[in-house]
Each structure stands twice: as C-alpha cells, then as structure tokens.
C-alpha cells in the first residue's frame, strides 16, 4: 500500500535506522521526517538519504501544533510512526521538564492532529486505513524480580521520570483509540543497540571509553539485567506491526537476550582487546571498569515476552546478541569520525559533566 508516513524523531538512533529500512522496504511510500534536532538528533544519521525522491526532512518540534497540523493538511499524512522523545533516563533524573513536554505534550499534539485530519475531517478528505504507531518502551512496566517476563497485560509501574512520561504518552494514545476511534497501535520494546546510537547510552559509551582508555563507569554492582535487541530487528518488527498490527492493540518487542550490564561491558572490552590488542602489555581493557554509585530508582531487571508479535505477526529477531554486539563494535570502529564529531560538538559540556570526559 502506498503510504505518506510522518516519522517523528527520524534523526535519532532508532528513527534513522527505521527511515532507511522503510524507504527500502515500502517502495511506494513517502517519508517525511519531522525532527527538532535536539542534542540527540543528528542529521548525519540520515545524510545518505539527501536527495532521495521519496524522503523529505522537516526541522520542527512535535509540540508545535501549527507545524504538525500543516504537515497533516499539506502532505496528506496517513501514517504516523512516532519515535520523537527525550530518551535518556539519567537526563530525566537531572531535569524531567523536557521529558514531560516532548513525551507527553508532544504526543498529545500529534494525536490531536491525527484526530482532526483522520476522524473529524469531511469524509472525502479522510485517508484510507490510517495508522498511528506509537513507539514506546518496556520501562513503563517497572522492574522484574529474578523470574517472569513483561507481557502486554503487565500493569504499568514506571519508576523514572523518563518511563513515567512514556507511560503517560501510552495512556493518551490508548485513550484516543477508545474515545475517538483513532486507529492507534502501541509497541513496547526492550533496550536497543546497534549503529547510530548516541554515545551516552551503555553500549556506545563503553565502546568509546574503552577505545580511548578512559574509565568504564558501571552503576551499582553491575548486575542489573536488560533484554537487548538489535535496532534492525526492532525496525523489522515495527514494519510488521505497520503492515499487520490490529488497531487498539499493544505489541511487546524484545530480542530474548537478557544480559547483566557487567557482562556487556566485559564483552565489549574483550572484543576490543581481540581486535586492537590490549591497552598495553599488562592492561586488558577490563581493568578500566569502575563501579560507581547506583542510579536512583535503578530498575533491577527487564525481560520481554515477545510471543504475541511473533505468533500473530510472524516476526522473529534475526541477530544473535554475540554477532550483533560484534558488528556494532565494528560499526563504531569504522565510524570513528561520526563518533568524534559528536564528542567534539556542542554537547561537550554535558558530556564533561555527566561522564567526566575532559
Ligand atoms: P534518540 O534520543 O536517539 O532520538 C530521539 C529523536 O527525537 C532525536 O532525533 C531528537 O532530535 C528527536 N526529538 C526529541 N524531541 C523532539 C521534539 N520535541 N520534536 C521533534 N523531534 C524531537 O531516541 P531513540 O533511542 O532513537 O528512541 C526513539 C524512541 O524509541 C523513543 O520514543 C524511545 O522512548 C523509544 N524506545 C527506545 C529504546 C532504546 O533502547 N533506545 C527502547 C524502546 C523504546
């Protein structure tokens, strides 16, 4: 089906991977990438798409109702894939306001624009089969003990300002479906890793610090468990949900790869030692690991039961974690200029403060 897709946050980590995958896979569809270019948005992530006949970038804020409304009206948007968000838990603890604004109010602005254009508009101006796909996180479910998995029926129990703002946005999306009949679908996905991830997140942060011989700060005892999925597997799952997901439904997406944080940091050290040699004759990179004061409210374990999306939509993750981590380390090694420009860029002060890089 030929769609006009508004992707929000398409210059970020997952959004940029998705735009690339969607242009390739949805050959008849047009993509409009609406991104504010916050510290996490990087036009370089999509620079290879400049000039693509079915792609257009618009710099703008999802909280700006006029910009969003104009895009729906002028472009005939019939599909929304909503990634734009403030996404880093540590930043939400330091300053929740931007999270409340973008993640909650921004989602509301998009929902209102969709409602006006898809539900309230005169019948002949309404698009056929519109879809509003809201991309969310498993962090809305809170923290698990040693056993069990998050399912689509797990009660919400967010613990950080980030997860609380995402939970609020999920509830709004669901309310627009129940109240106005907006054809929404929600996906809750586990931790992503892969190319183009901003180097404040665990895996790229550890890669860059280990490359440069800097300390590798690990929260608490390092035994917090996350369920990791390669970003390209996540994007494939989103394409499956777009094609076959049922309005009003939620789909949990995960890679079935539970790992303790410390295991991941050690694996990155070992891969880099193997590829580049140790730091010097007596120091393997594991010697850079430092346990630091735990993050307040740090959730202990996340694990996703992705059975529904696998059974109902026929999706399955393709990357093994070991191969995915190796290819991710390779990508960062091959794209050191990309990494360096971020580190040298305007975010330098934040990096200094949060990670002691200079
Ligand atoms: P990211 O921080 O890398 O990218 C966010 C993008 O949104 C950036 O390009 C930024 O410029 C843009 N943006 C932020 N505020 C905006 C605004 N007000 N208007 C327009 N654009 C704005 O995030 P990510 O890791 O790619 O995550 C994307 C989405 O997926 C988020 O909604 C996040 O909650 C969700 N998610 C992420 C993960 C993960 O592991 N990264 C897991 C599950 C779900």
Spatially, the strands of the biggest sheet line up as 3-2-1-4-5-6-10
User: Can you count the beta strands?
Assistant: 12
How far is it from the N-terminal to the C-terminal residue, by CA?
51 Å
Helical coverage, percent range? 40-55%
Largest sheet: 7 strands, parallel
Question: Radius of gyration over alpha carbons?
Answer: 20 Å
Classify the fold: give the CATH topology of the domain at 4-196 and 229-257 and 301-319: Rossmann fold
Fraction in beta strands: 15-25%
Q: What are the secondary-structure elements, in order, as H or E?
A: EHEEHEHHEHEEHEEHEEHEHHHH
Unique bound compounds:
nicotinamide-adenine-dinucleotide
Main attributes?
single chain; 358 residues; alpha/beta; Rossmann fold; seven-stranded parallel beta sheet; three-stranded mixed beta sheet; 12 helices; 43% helix; 16% strand; globular; binds nicotinamide-adenine-dinucleotide; dTDP-glucose 4,6-dehydratase; lyase; EC 4.2.1.46; NAD(P)-bd_dom_sf; NAD
